[in-house]
Amino acid sequence: MCGIVGYIGKKNSKCLLMEGLKRLEYRGYDSSGIAMLNDGHIICCKAVGKISNLESKLQNADFDSNIGIAHTRWATHGEPNEVNAHPHTDSKNQVAVVHNGIIENYAELKKDLQKKGCVFKSATDSEVLAHLIAMFIDEGCGLEEAVRRTMEQIEGTYGMAVICVKYPNKMVAARNGSPLIVGLGDDEFIVASDASAVVEHTRQIIYLNDHELITLNSQDYIIKTIQDIHVHKSVDNIDWDLGKIEKAGYPHFMLKEIFEQPESIHNAMRGRFDDEECTAHLGGLQKVKDRLRKTKRIIISACGTSWHSALIGEYLFEDLAQIPTEVEYASEFRYRNPIIYEDDTVLLITQSGETADTLAALREAKRKGALTLAICNVVGSTIARESDAGVYLHAGPEIGVASTKAFTSQLTVLSLAALMLGRMHNMSPVQGERIITALRNLPFQIEQIFKADKIIKEIAERFTYAQNFLYLGRGYNFPAALEGALKLKEISYIHAEGYPAAEMKHGPIALINESMPVVFIATQDAIYDKVISNIEEVKARKGYVIAIATEGDEKISQKADKVIYIPDTLPFLVPILSVIPLQLLAYYIAILKGCNVDQPRNLAKSVTVE
Ligand code: F6R
Question: What digits encode the pLDDT tens for the residues 215-225?
Fold first, then answer.
């Protein structure tokens, strides 16, 4: 949510900052801007809409410097226009700031600053940062001290980068609650919201923690806490390359990421089977294994697609490991004073590892003494670092705003965790072995589903302009139905709802008529016959039924209008397969409607504000 990038070094930075912004565009894309120190002045350029608009504006401008900051915005305070776009400057144009986060006490601060004569230009919360820093500089502070004092004044979250005309060889960056990393190059540094803006130039990075600030010149850096205490930090190495964040010939990241799933699922399992013991070996959980063995209850907390994974996790942990499990929206959990015992395990599921609500849920669980675990994709992210232990997805960067490969990798890791917990309790080795075999088969089965592309495209063509969709499933397929509906609504803007199939008759059935497409996930499991009855109920009301069914199921083709077959697997692994055609259906409909699937309106990849 908002991307920031800053450069200080020997090179001209315009191209580097613009490239960085493009890589961060998935974090927010309603406006963007860039500011540089040039000949004792701050020069600034902003544009509404995509970064390409800013690029066009800059094309013929005499605009470059070896120190600059840039920003791509996802609006929180103030509509997306040029004035509200970052960077923001103070009244005298001495200081420029880019900010990701929310300054909660900005209204009071703004009032005070206005009384002191500051003239505000924008409706944003972020502008107070520029005025506060400039005020402290006017009072005689150096840039670092001015930023530190500003941090003392503000409440809320921030990742920020600051430049000032008085300090042409200095940049200060600070963080609290919003991610910030620093890439270390040869006599140059790049500050960014995430590693994608840096990886082209260096693999050496430093993660800033909350309440830390870094002061950079082109040769050196110093990190301090808000209390002015020096901090020594280790340098981490990024273990993925540029190829992972490029489209590799696909028209969209989303399609590339859908087609990457055989590989990403394989990567989530790689080296994690113990064939001798018929269990999973999750290295990241080793150090907490004893505590985990004794856990009386698991609470899973997450948002959005990751919350759908959590629902499947609940079924898995209760089904395979017999551990009572609850699922909570992180945004609710953090504010409702939940009862958490010390022998509880609180599991956070998050692709980005930066979602503000999930992070707050983690901190609340920690405060109450529970064991905290994370299933996370982004290595080194805040949630990965702050939880007691965890498991990485190894899915590689997910750039498409709609989550696809992270979802199936989360389900894979949850299945491994349930297998491990099950084997710790009362699951037989034979069942463990059966699960391992089925998991190993998944990547090949997904390849087979890709062959059903044609029928999915046909369905997409027929329903491109549908107003509504219903997605229904039962058991493990209910969360998959929710996920199918979310994918469709977020990228094609068609209203879609997911329901447990049997709940349909308690209300949604009223919506069914001949123009209502209803997607049933109706695979052959213990409640297959019940789902068939639900299909009959829809057909009796002239609804159009699209069924996701198990290969070889002849019966369903007489009931449904269209059938997409998926290979057979164990019931709790079905969502990993059934969601694939649903992702593709959403993708093809959105493309036919001309929607921007990688950057759907109003959304951002990593929701770092609450
Ligand atoms: C939907 C989607 C979002 C995220 C949610 C949580 O396609 O991507 O619903 O799943 O914002 O994000 P993470 O998993 O990064 O915590």
Answer: 999 899 999 99
